[in-house]
Amino acid sequence: HDPLRHASLAVPPLQIGVAHVKKALTAIDGVKSVEVSLEEKIAVVDLEREVKNEVLTSAIVEAGYEVVSLL
C-alpha cells in the first residue's frame, strides 16, 4: 500500500464505538473511506491525499477512543 494513500491504526475493542470512529475519521479532509474491523481491532483508512498520522489519531482520541498503535 502507498503510505500516502493508506493508513492502518490498531484500536481497542470498539463494539459500541465503530460508528463514532468511522464518523470521526471520515470527517477529516482527505479521507476517502474507513473500514473498522472488530475482529482484527483495526481501523483502515483510505486517503485521497496525504493526511498526517497525528490528525488521524487525534480524531479518534477526540471521539473518546484510544489508538493503540499505527500499523
Question: Can you walk through the features of this model?
Answer:
This protein has 71 residues and is an alpha+beta fold. It contains two helices and four strands; from the N terminus they run βαββαβ. Strands 2-3-1-4 form a four-stranded antiparallel sheet, with helices on one face. The radius of gyration is 11 Å and the shape is globular. The mean pLDDT is 84.
Could you estimate the helical fraction of the residues in percent?
A: 25-40%
User: What coarse outline follows from CA principal-axis ratios?
Assistant: globular
The average pLDDT value, as a whole number, equals 84
Spatial extent as radius of gyration: 11 Å
| Largest sheet data | 4 strands, antiparallel
User: How much of the sequence is in beta strands?
Assistant: 25-35%
Secondary-structure element series: EHEEHE
Number of helices: 2
Which regions are unreliable across 5 or more consecutive residues at pLDDT < 50? none
